[in-house]
Amino acid sequence: MISIGKYNTLEILRHTRVGLFLGDGTEEVLLPEKYVPLRYEIGQEADVFVYLDHEERKVATTLEPYIYLNEFAYLRVNYINEFGAFLDWGMEKDLFCPFAEQARKMEQGKRYLVYLFLDEKSNRLVASSKTNQFLSNENLTVEVGEEVDLIVSHITEAGINVILNEVHKGLLFENEVFTDSIKPGQRLTGFVKKIRPGNKIDVSLEKIGYEKIEPNAEKILEKLKSGRGFLRLTDNSSPDDIKAVLQMSKKTFKKAVGALYKDRKIEIGEDGIRLVN
């Protein structure tokens, strides 16, 4: 059966004045003429994205959507009517997000993190900004130290709420983030730092434990090389100064400097650290 909201590999069956008809042996779908490739052969396979057109019929396209079925994306609202919001997802027909699926009332022109699901009652693709209902920490598929894909959900006083591997909820503490550029919808690579009671997951943007020392030591070496072999930072430097120069915590800085000093790659002075020639 041809799936909507996903890419399908289908056989080219025939060409008509309205486009190519593609099939999987059980049903057919139209690839409109404007998307027909310059070269093709009957019987050849084609990879196409399938969704519902304005008349709720399955239709194929070679356009690439911004979101796929059962995935998250940060989408802009094109317009709003009495039924809900319509989001730009890269297709000719906008993606519908009914008011009942809005975590807070959406506004035209703004972007929201949404999940794309198939509504079983209407058999239509629907977006929802109530993302927590599609996440679960009941049975964790990650462990401490593991590298994970992150999506920034929303930012609160407690920290930065993130989605791990599009499956679990996690928290990134703001005082452990050394950049001001993190925004909702942003995709990052992180690491599972701790799993607290109740399967609450703390994450970090740095590797955990000793593993994080080496890349940060390399960062310090690169900074030294670009700064003529000198860096005006010491154990007495403020955390804010270290964050501004190196985008790392003071604790991480001290560990990395200690590793470099042990390897005799730097000298530590009262006014800063120097590269050993």
Describe this structure in words.
The chain starts with 5 loop residues before the first strand and ends with a strand. The strands form four sheets. It has a five-stranded antiparallel sheet, with no helix packed on it. It has a five-stranded antiparallel sheet with strand order 8-7-6-9-10, with no helix packed on it. The protein is elongated and about 80 Å long. A hairpin with a 3-residue loop joins β6 (72-80) and β7. The chain folds into four domains: 6-61, OB fold (Dihydrolipoamide Acetyltransferase, E2P) (Beta Barrel), CATH 2.40.50.140; 72-132, Nucleic acid-binding proteins (OB fold (Dihydrolipoamide Acetyltransferase, E2P)); 147-205, OB fold (Dihydrolipoamide Acetyltransferase, E2P) (Beta Barrel); 210-275, Arc Repressor Mutant, subunit A (Orthogonal Bundle), CATH 1.10.10. It is mainly beta. The chain contains three helices and 18 strands. The mean pLDDT is 90. The protein has helices at 213-226, 239-246, 250-262, and strands at 6-16, 19-23, 28-32, 45-52, 58-61, 72-80, 84-88, 95-98, 111-119, 124-128, 147-155, 160-164, 168-172, 187-196, 200-204, 230-231, 266-268, 273-275.
